Amino acid sequence: MVADTDGRAPRKRADARRNQLALLDAAATVFVTSGVQAPVRDIAAAAGVGMGTIYRHFPTRADLIVAVYRHQVEACAEAGPALLANTATPYTALANWMDHFVDFLVTKHGLAAALQSDGLDALHTYFLDRLVPVCAQLLDAAAGAGEIRTDVAAYELMRGVGNLCVGVGDDTRYDARHLVELLISGLRRQG
C-alpha cells in the first residue's frame, strides 16, 4: 500500500484495487451460482487470482460476504443515475434498474443468511440509505414525465419487489423477475 502524506489511511495500489474488484465481482457470480459456501478456490479461479490474494484482501469468509454485499449495493446505487442519464425514458430507466435490483436481491438473500450476525442490521441500514434515494429519484423522474402513477413510494416499491424475490431458488417454477415486470408495468399511467 502507498501511504498518504496527509494522515489519511494508506491507499491501495491500482493493481490491488483491480484485484479486489475482480474478486468481488467473481465472488458475487460464484455466490449466485453455487451459494455463499462455495469453495474459495472457485472464487479465486473465477477472478483469475491466487488463493493468497483472496485471503490478503478478505481474511475470513464473513469479510468477503460483507464486502460483496457492500459492493453490490454500490453497483446498484450507481446504476440508477447512469440509467436515467443514458436511457430513452425515465420509465425504461426504472424498469432496467429494477432488473439490477432483482439481481442484487437474489444474491442478498444468500449473503444475509450466511452472515447471521449483529452486523446484519447495519448492512440493512446501509442498503436502505443507499438504494431508497436512488429508487425515489427514478420514480420521481418517471412520474414527472407523466409515465407512471404518483402514489407509490420508493420504500414501498422496493419492499414489494423484495417480497417477490424471497422465493427465488426454492421453486424452479417460480419466476420472480416476471412478477417484478408485472409490478413495474402496473405503475404505468393508463391512457
UniProtKB/TrEMBL annotation:
Pfam families: TetR_C_43, TetR_N. Residues 39-58 bind DNA. GO terms for molecular function: DNA-binding transcription factor activity; transcription cis-regulatory region binding. Coiled coil: none annotated. Residues 17-76 form the HTH tetR-type domain. It comes from the Bacteria. Keywords: DNA-binding, Transcription, Transcription regulation. InterPro entries: Homeodomain-like_sf, HTH-type_TetR-like_transc_reg, HTH_TetR, Tet_transcr_reg_TetR-rel_C_sf, TetR_SbtR-like_C. PANTHER family: HTH-TYPE TRANSCRIPTIONAL REGULATOR BETI, HTH-TYPE TRANSCRIPTIONAL REGULATOR RUTR. This is TetR/AcrR family transcriptional regulator. It comes from Pseudonocardia petroleophila.
